[in-house]
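Take the subject:
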Amino acid sequence: MYRTHTCGELRLQNTGETVILSGWVQKVRNLGAMTFIDIRDRYGITQLVVDEHSASEVREKALSLGREYVIQAVGKVIERSSKNSNIPTGDIEIAVSDLNILNAAETPPFTIEDNSDGGEELRMKYRYLDLRRNPLKRALELRHRMAQIVRNYLDGKGFMEIETPYLIGSTPEGARDFIVPSRMNPGEFYALPQSPQTFKQLLMVAGYDRYFQIVRCFRDEDLRADRQPEFTQIDCEMAFVDREDILQMFEGMAKELFRQVLGVVFEEKFPRITYDEAMEKYGSDKPDTRFGMTITDITNEVKGRNFVVFDSVEYIGAICAEGCAGYTRKQIDALTEFVKRPQVGAKGLVYIRCEEGGQLKSSVDKFYTQEDLKVIAGKAEAKEGDLILILAGGKKKTLSALCDLRLEMGSQLGLRDNGKFSPLWVVDFPLLEWDEETQRFYAMHHPFTAPKAEDIELFDKDPASVRANAYDFVVNGTEIGGGSIRIFDSVLQNKMFELLGFTQEEAQRQFGFLMNAFKYGAPPHGGIAFGFDRFCSLFGGSESIRDYIAFPKNNSGRDVMSDSPSPVSKEQLEELNLKIDIKE
């Protein structure tokens, strides 16, 4: 037997027991007459002690140990004279009677401690070492626990976990597919699924009315902290339901996760706001509602005063930063530089200070009287001590910039507390979005999203105004999940394909199997998918999903540990009937 207990298990009540521990050497401290060894495994750390009364062989082995050696120690549990309250095993130590080196180790390239001295790229290269550190261990433990809660909740609601294929046909709509050549079918390719969308709809046609899967998905897209080329979804579909059924079911799942994992209880229903309201008030379809500072349209209040910056644009919007009238010129200049960044895109910033005694001080005083400024302040609901910040330009672009400015102010004022959670549903998205470059409509979500029943008549006369029967689950400014009621009528589905520019032949080639299935009795159905990695990082208080994935890719989509992607041999390419021609 390699061990009788783990390294995080022993307590004072075990005093006097002879035990066997196995694990990695965290640290060795040689004090001459005594040598202390911290032995670590997944469960914790226990201190071993080798003293002058120990056998000479044991003392020699103890002195030869290095960091990350794998060892086995036999000894008696004794009470520590100098206790360590920072670890659960800190009241005891093991008086070692026998010590075995199971495997020597080279000195690791970085310290395996909570605060490591290794940079991110180095730690990703040696990910198997990084995973020994407590922060990553806690992240994966959190992921495991959340997966079990999800499975238990959905199982209790009658859902079946059913696997769907990883090798499917390519669907060019949406993000780019990863494609896989077929050796047995020369010149033809599989794609890795961006989601199990069509297959879960087929399961509804097949009569499996409550399906779920914690499933790997793949998208060949540009990466950032909250994206990976391969990611995990909690993928769910239900038949004979409307939107309300789905929102209630999965609001219940989210509440259960909050309660069991974080001890946060939500008694009330999550708020619901429309897409239009989210854009008008927050400049985003995934608003952070932990704080106010909503956007106010002041276009009508400020135009017509011979200030060309305002008079020449489509939209002027403002946010009110409470208690910030004391911002210095330097601070306001820094905000001006922030909004001028290319990723924000504003051309400049106008401010109004609401000073003591009702006096208003503005960067555009020569164009606006005190009475004019009071009208603006009233519209923005500003009071004495507040600071009004104003941006102008095209409506869509300005709302986006105001969103960025609002979030920046929220961060500066400490209003974006990671320990506070503000979940909500965003509903009634546009069904379609127009692309000027290609001069065609694209599906806002995907081609199978149903329109709201009352908007179907707009398909022919005003497609841009059709609202989708879709919904997103948003927490703290992050989209955690999204879904929709699906089109289950072949005629309406064909109409949707027409609007998206598909010919009948193209639609049949890409989605014919689904359309044919609908002919045999498709029930009303809908579903939702949650980004499981994002959910985990939200609960763990991290901006990045990487820590919650055992073996993630870097920002270039590379696995620097296994050095992939990588070239393949000429023989493999010949087997696949492929030639590589890399353009300069």
